[in-house]
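Lecture notes, unit on binding sites. The following record was shown on slide 14. It pairs a sequence with S-adenosyl-L-homocysteine.
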Amino acid sequence: SDIGSQKERVVTEEEWLQKWEMGNIGFHKEQGHPLLQKYLDVLLNGRSGLRIFFPLCGKAVEMKWLADMGHSVVGVEVSEQAVKEFFSEHSLPYCEEPVPEISGAKLFQSTSGNISLYCCSIYDLSSSIVGKFDGVWDRGALVAVNPRDRQRYASLMISLVEKNSSCLLVTVSYDPNKHKGPPFYVPESEIKSLFG
Ligand code: SAH
């Protein structure tokens, strides 16, 4: 009952594109997330050269951090503006190509090859297109997904990770009756039932 007021709420892709156009992107943090710094060892678990996935990536600066550490980063984002701003704000040259398996999708890849951002809906991806990942940084992703799509999102994420992967998930704790989201309120019990 505590998420009753948010359950039916939908933020459309069009609305997300508008947020980017209007510069209404309070979720973007120039400084990078302190929790990634804090739990980096859990994500990496002593491993190097990982493939790390950023669902609903926006222009998250953490993608640059992890790429600079020698990992290979893959993100997905509906807003082409966000993807282009990511590369230009970090002065990273990139190339752009269509994705044959997904109509209308584009792949933006850094010239150095270690950052690949798919511009399409996450629901268009599958492991046959993007492969599987060793790690996931989910900040502003599960909590941005419309509540009715959570099960679909979780199943997709599970299909995109290797067996011994590490996934970091950030949620936001607040009274869902006082704020309509996003970020949506995702109770811990639901995280357990989605991901086991
Ligand atoms: N993870 C990022 C952005 C969080 S905001 C960060 O930490 O800054 C959520 C982002 O998801 C927005 O940029 C929005 O444009 C994008 N988005 C929303 N629905 C999406 C979908 N179905 N597929 C891909 N991206 C989506």
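Take-home: The mean pLDDT is 96.
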